[in-house]
Amino acid sequence: MDYSNATTVELPVGPRPTPPPAHRGGPWRELSGALAVGMSVLAVVVVVFQVLAFFQGMPGPGPLTVFGHIAAAVLAVFVQRFADRRTGWQAALSVLGVVAVSAAALWLFWWS
């Protein structure tokens, strides 16, 4: 085979893949994420118990407890999303916010 008249064609090079971002989390951010998920699961459980109690003609947890759990879950997830997108003191304050919201909800609706 005669390759003397062959030409070389340069293939276009696309953008280089970006490396994954450095792990900015840590045990505290993971703990607050678990608390936010736990508050969401707890809110769903309380809603299910209220619906079951309604259909069985029983009082159930009550509207204040149901809406309080929903509000705490929404607030915890919102603050956790903020913590996941920030670094430094803003992230630390957000993690403390998730812990505070979770602790307040558990104290008000379960232990007091």
List keywords for this structure.
3 helices; mainly alpha; 112 residues; elongated
Summarize the structure in short.
The protein is mainly alpha-helical and 112 residues long. The protein has 3 helices and no strands. It has one domain (27-111).
Description:
The protein has 112 residues and is mostly helical. The radius of gyration is 26 Å and the shape is elongated. 66% of the residues lie in helices and 0% in strands. It has helices spanning 27-55, 63-84, 89-111. It has one domain.
End-to-end C-alpha gap: 89 Å
Average pLDDT figure: 89
Helix content: 55-70%
Shape, principal axes of CA atoms: elongated
SS-based structural class?
A: mainly alpha
Along the chain, the helix and strand elements come as HHH
Strand content: under 5%
Rounded Rg = 26 Å
Number of β-strand runs: 0
**Which quaternary structure do these chains form?**
single chain
State the major sheet.
none
Q: How many separate structural domains?
A: 1
Low-confidence region ranges: none
Separate helix tally: 3
